[in-house]
């Protein structure tokens, strides 16, 4: 191990070899084991032409003097096979010295207005991702402008006019009916959590889903009351007023909380805070999906086992403790009925996957939840086992009565401050869960949700719900899972859900009296377990270990805490990952491809690339901000010292490739100034290449270019190499000392 650097060089340095084998052409690139190489670009042009690019933007090399290939212009680094695959590295290249003068890189002519515009551009992109929100209205007729505006306000207009009845209608009807039948017993349970009348929860499954279908952007998410928010409201409001002593005041506080919650969510939407949706990474979504699927499935042990008492916590530890502590409440009839239908639905799901082309199995699987509810209700009602330990929905009042609850909204009673805080907490919790659900299923089916439209939809449906005896509604994971399993395609399922709930409230409520809770639990457990995806976790592990840590943190946070804790843990880990990349950026050692094209590439990515005598060429693969300024300065100095020790010759030039460093702050510029002074004391000239317009402007305004010398600013690293070699004296031969070379390795941080 090199004590100066604190790590071992992964690639051994090879002694000087005059008969250097020609490496790959500038257009070829290394691939991982088992893959075939391919030619991704043309060779360099005359003179200093760079190699062709890889992927988009690739093509022929530049003309004379215009070095630099498309590869180095990309902001990616190929990560091939294990480092041990690279057996050695040449020590130098010998292009003919070129009579190259300074590149005369033009300095950007930027006004104060341009600087302010560029500084505020990220904020503009946050508020308006489409950059110019009025561009879509230009060159349009008034009718077209009105239609574009209406589609932007009411997303339902973007898909309803082109709705395909033949392909979508049946699946949407089955999905809507399935979640409606399942919602009734769920709503009754959630009303108990919130200490609210049953009707409040049933109303919450009627109006909010209808409004979301009109205003929301998710095709699959189902809206309604959920366990977490119901528990939150029940616990927090009960701490202020006892619902048994003053139910009227408690219900007023519940409705007021819903009103303020909708107001907060609507304000967030109008303030364009939808960018929060993008803060959930794919590993976070994968962990959220797995964690919620497992905990929701385990929560169904209560109805399946026939327990009347159970924990309200979603923690897996609390659930298993409750299973043990309340084992004396076990009802074998409930377990037999629930487990039988769970096995039935599981077999249907497995057979459908085994024979995906079978329409009979497809529709049987889709109709399975409805069939299970109907058949089990008949069994319970005819056998009378509802009196022998099998829990059912119970009596539900027919009719809607007086839904209006405007009178209940009171912003002037003594608990207003407490209610406002509870409403803000409920708004954030419901948004976190809904965004997680929406992003999860949108990713599964290849579409995107609009964060701003989602916030406005949640706010509108909760504001309207507070006028119609609803309490806080949000996205339901279990109902969405059943909706997808039933074959739903669009948000029409929400409209069908609302219509069905209206029919239930007006006429069909008594039919749900004998619906067994154990079968509803079996349907939910079967649906959510179907969403577990172990392949996704394995793929994340293979691609990025830090992303796997993010996913695992989210998963563990959910199963040992709650969905909100899981999302918080994943967000913290994701932030730390980004911070790590900024605080300790990668610094790549660059070499030149042998042959005609002098293209700067990573020595690990291209093992046949060669180093230059007396020249250290590096690429900082991150913006240079204040946390990384001192680290980069010290690291570059140590690497220059390691080069000098390893080759037993002085370093004359240090070339920094800034092609990936798209931004720099004042501390970063000061770090470069200190680096320039430190290198100058060692007679090493600092050179910069491929600086972006913004970085170049900041370096110019800070007078760094004048201090370094504008003649040491280059278009590409290859141009810098040519000039450095043209002004250098003949380098001494590299000493071949086997012991020294065996102990020193070329690095790649």
What would you say about this model in short?
The protein has 749 residues and is mainly α. It contains 28 helices and ten strands.
Shape annotation: elongated
Helix % is: 40-55%
Rg, Cα atoms, Å:
33 Å
Query: First CA to last CA: what distance?
Result: 14 Å
**How much of the residues is beta strand, in percent?**
under 5%
Q: Would you identify the regions where 5 or more consecutive residues have pLDDT less than 50? A: 1-102, 729-749
Largest sheet: 6 strands, mixed
Mean pLDDT, rounded to whole units?
80
Number of domains: 2
Contiguous helical run count:
28
Class from secondary-structure proportions = mainly alpha
Strand order of the largest sheet: 5-4-6-7-8-9
Tell me the total number of β-strands: 10
Looking at this protein, list some descriptive labels:
disordered C terminus; elongated; two-stranded antiparallel sheet; 6-stranded mixed sheet; Transcription Regulator spoIIAA; disordered N terminus; single chain
């Amino acid at each position: 191990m090199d004590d100066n650097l604190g790590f071992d060089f992964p690639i051994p340095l090879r002694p000087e070899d005059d008969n250097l084998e020609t490496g790959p052409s500038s257009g070829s690139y290394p691939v991982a084991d088992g893959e075939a190489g391919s030619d991704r670009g043309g060779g360099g042009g005359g003179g200093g032409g760079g190699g062709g690019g890889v992927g988009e933007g690739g093509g022929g090399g530049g003309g004379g003097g215009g070095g630099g290939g498309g590869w180095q212009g990309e902001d990616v680094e190929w990560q091939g096979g294990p480092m041990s695959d690279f057996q050695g590295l040449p020590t130098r290249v010998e292009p003919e010295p070129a009579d190259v003068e300074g590149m005369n890189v033009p300095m950007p002519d930027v006004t104060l207005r341009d600087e302010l515009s560029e500084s505020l551009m990220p904020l503009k992109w946050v508020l308006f991702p489409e950059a110019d929100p009025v561009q879509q209205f230009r060159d349009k007729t008034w009718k077209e402008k009105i239609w574009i505006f209406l589609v932007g306000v009411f997303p339902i207009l973007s898909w309803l006019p082109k709705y395909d009845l033949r392909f979508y209608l049946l699946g949407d009807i089955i999905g809507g009916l399935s979640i409606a039948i399942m919602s009734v017993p769920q709503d009754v349970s959630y009303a108990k959590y919130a200490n609210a009348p049953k009707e409040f929860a049933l109303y919450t499954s009627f109006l909010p889903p209808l409004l979301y279908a009109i205003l929301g952007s998710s095709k699959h998410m189902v809206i309604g009351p959920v366990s977490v928010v119901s528990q939150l409201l029940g616990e927090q409001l009960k701490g202020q007023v006892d619902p048994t002593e003053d139910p009227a005041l408690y219900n007023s506080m519940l409705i007021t909380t819903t009103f303020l919650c909708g107001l907060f969510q609507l304000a967030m939407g109008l303030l364009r805070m939808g960018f929060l949706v993008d803060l959930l990474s794919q590993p976070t979504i994968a962990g959220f999906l797995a964690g919620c699927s497992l905990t929701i499935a385990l929560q169904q042990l209560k109805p399946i086992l026939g327990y009347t008492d159970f924990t309200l916590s979603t923690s897996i530890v609390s659930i298993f403790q409750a299973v043990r502590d309340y084992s004396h409440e076990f009802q074998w009839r409930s377990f037999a009925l629930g487990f039988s239908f769970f096995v039935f639905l599981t077999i249907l799901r497995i057979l459908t996957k085994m024979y995906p082309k079978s329409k009979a199995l497809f529709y049987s699987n889709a109709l399975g939840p409805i069939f299970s509810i109907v058949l089990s209700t008949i069994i319970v009602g005819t056998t009378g086992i509802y009196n022998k330990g099998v829990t059912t929905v119970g009596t539900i009042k027919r009719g809607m009565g007086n839904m209006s609850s405007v009178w209940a909204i009171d912003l002037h009673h003594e608990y207003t401050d407490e209610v406002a805080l509870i409403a803000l907490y409920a708004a954030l919790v419901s948004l976190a869960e809904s965004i997680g659900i929406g992003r999860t299923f949108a990713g599964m089916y290849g579409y995107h949700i609009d964060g701003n439209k989602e916030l406005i939809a949640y706010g509108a449906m909760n504001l309207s719900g507070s006028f119609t005896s609803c309490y806080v509604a949000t996205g339901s994971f279990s109902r969405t899972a059943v909706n997808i399993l039933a074959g739903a395609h669009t948000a029409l399922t929400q409209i069908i859900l609302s219509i069905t709930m209206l029919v239930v409230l007006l006429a069909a409520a008594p039919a749900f009296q004998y619906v067994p809770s154990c079968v509803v639990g079996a349907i939910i457990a079967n649906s959510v377990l179907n969403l577990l995806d172990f392949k996704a976790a394995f793929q994340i592990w293979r691609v990025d270990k830090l992303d796997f840590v993010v996913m695992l943190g989210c998963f563990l946070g959910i199963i040992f805490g709650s969905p909100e804790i899981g999302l918080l843990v994943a967000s913290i880990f994701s932030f730390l990952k980004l911070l790590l990349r900024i605080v300790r950026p990668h610094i790549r050692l660059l070499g030149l491809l042998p042959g005609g094209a002098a293209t700067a590439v990573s020595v690990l990515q291209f093992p046949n690339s060669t180093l230059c005598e007396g020249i250290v060429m590096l690429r900082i693969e991150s913006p240079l901000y204040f946390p990384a300024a001192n680290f980069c300065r010290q690291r570059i100095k140590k690497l220059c010292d390691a080069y000098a020790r390893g080759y037993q010759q002085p370093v004359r030039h240090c070339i920094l490739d800034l092609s990936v460093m798209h931004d720099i702050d004042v501390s970063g510029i000061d770090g470069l100034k200190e680096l320039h002074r430190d290198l100058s004391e060692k007679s090493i000239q600092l050179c910069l290449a491929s600086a972006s317009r913004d970085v170049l402007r900041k370096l110019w305004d800070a007078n760094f270019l004048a201090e370094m010398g504008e003649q040491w600013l280059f278009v590409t690293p290859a141009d810098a190499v040519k000039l450095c070699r043209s002004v250098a004296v003949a380098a001494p031969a590299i000493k071949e000392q086997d012991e020294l070379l065996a102990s020193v390795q070329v690095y790649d941080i």
